[in-house]
Design brief:
Blueprint: E1 2-4, E2 8-12, E3 18-22, E4 39-43, E5 53-60, E6 63-66, H1 69-76
Antiparallel strand pairs: 1-2, 2-3, 4-5, 5-6
């Protein structure tokens, strides 16, 4: 739905509820800021986390764009 304060985003779930998630990319993310876009989030139960979910990808056109820069390195490794 929207991104704010560099590291936070509000995401609407399939059931219509709103969840605040961590946005790991503090950059401008030009071209990925369209409200209503399909997103993918991961879930973590790690202690010390303020938010249980992290924004990982957003659909732009016909493809998903990765928003979590460190995740690409983890996938390659």
């Amino acid at each position: 739905m929207r991104r704010y304060k560099r590291f936070l985003a509000d995401v609407e779930l399939e059931d219509g509820s709103i969840r605040t998630v961590h946005c790991p990319n503090p950059g401008a993310m030009a071209g990925t800021d369209r409200p209503g876009s399909l997103v993918r989030c991961s879930t973590s139960t790690g202690p010390g986390r303020k938010l249980a979910h992290t924004l990982e990808m957003i659909r732009v056109g016909r493809i998903f764009v990765g928003l979590h820069a460190a995740r690409a390195n983890q996938l390659v490794a």
